UniProtKB/TrEMBL annotation:
Domain of life: Bacteria
GO biological process: cell division; peptidoglycan biosynthetic process; regulation of cell shape
Keywords recorded for this protein, A-Z: Cell shape, Glycosyltransferase, Membrane, Peptidoglycan synthesis, Transferase, Transmembrane, Transmembrane helix
InterPro entries with a match to the protein in the record: FtsW/RodA
Transmembrane region(s): 12-32, 38-57, 69-86, 106-124, 136-164
EC number annotated for this UniProt entry: 2.4.99.28
UniProt key word Metal-binding: no
Protein name (database record): Probable peptidoglycan glycosyltransferase FtsW
Catalytic activity field: [GlcNAc-(1->4)-Mur2Ac(oyl-L-Ala-gamma-D-Glu-L-Lys-D-Ala-D-Ala)](n)-di-trans,octa-cis-undecaprenyl diphosphate + beta-D-GlcNAc-(1->4)-Mur2Ac(oyl-L-Ala-gamma-D-Glu-L-Lys-D-Ala-D-Ala)-di-trans,octa-cis-undecaprenyl diphosphate = [GlcNAc-(1->4)-Mur2Ac(oyl-L-Ala-gamma-D-Glu-L-Lys-D-Ala-D-Ala)](n+1)-di-trans,octa-cis-undecaprenyl diphosphate + di-trans,octa-cis-undecaprenyl diphosphate + H(+)
Keyword Transmembrane helix (UniProt): yes
């Protein structure tokens, strides 16, 4: 039994944070709309099962497919704009039978695996850091044009979390982050001025 739940005990702070957010989200959603239940609990158990499954895989093995994850992320985001279902003026969902898939949420962990491998492989200098920002800009822009500013911001936060955990010179991190946030804000303002992008 201990071996089954072992992944949840490796990082107690992370596990408690995740379970707190799950309980909090269930309470909020239940107070707003009871219709998603009990199917919502199925999604939670599937997510926990996915967490357990991937925690059993050595990161060195996962990192071998990091480039494939990045390419798959770009393809998924492009597919959303091409075949995605329009909901409230946005292209965020791909219908798959009775279910709807939101690629922007799926690609976030895939992108983090890619950047974790990319930023820790070899020497990390300013040039490589800026190159990684360029690689980040492609999926972020594809998410912004859906439009989904919140998901794009969370994607960037995850990226900078990986960058902070790396050996990158922290003195350059603030300038790098300010530049990315400024450009993201300018892009979103431009999209709004053109009538909401693809709406």
């Amino acid at each position: 039994m201990r071996s089954i739940f072992g992944p949840f005990f490796k990082d107690l702070a992370l596990s408690f944070s995740v379970f707190f957010l799950i309980i909090f989200s269930v309470a909020i959603l239940n107070s707003l709309d009871k219709s998603p239940f009990p199917l919502y609990f199925v999604y939670i158990f599937l997510a926990l099962g996915a967490f357990w499954f991937f925690s059993q895989i050595n990161f060195d093995i996962v990192s071998l497919f990091s480039k494939h994850f990045y390419i798959a992320s770009i393809i998924l985001l492009l597919s959303t704009l091409i075949i995605g279902r329009v909901t409230r003026g946005t292209f965020r969902w791909i219908p798959i039978g009775p279910f709807s898939l939101q690629p922007a949420e799926i690609v976030r962990p895939l992108l983090l695996v890619f950047f974790a491998n990319y930023l820790t492989k070899g020497t990390l200098n300013t040039q490589k850091a800026f190159k990684s920002v360029g690689l980040l800009a492609i999926p972020v822009i594809l998410i912004l044009v859906q439009p989904s500013l919140g998901v794009s911001v969370l994607t960037m936060v995850g990226f900078f979390g990986v960058l902070i955990a790396s050996k990158f010179d922290k003195k350059h991190l603030l300038a790098l982050g300010a530049g990315v946030i400024k450009n993201t804000d300018l892009f979103d303002s431009r999209r709004r001025s053109l009538g909401g992008g693809l709406q």
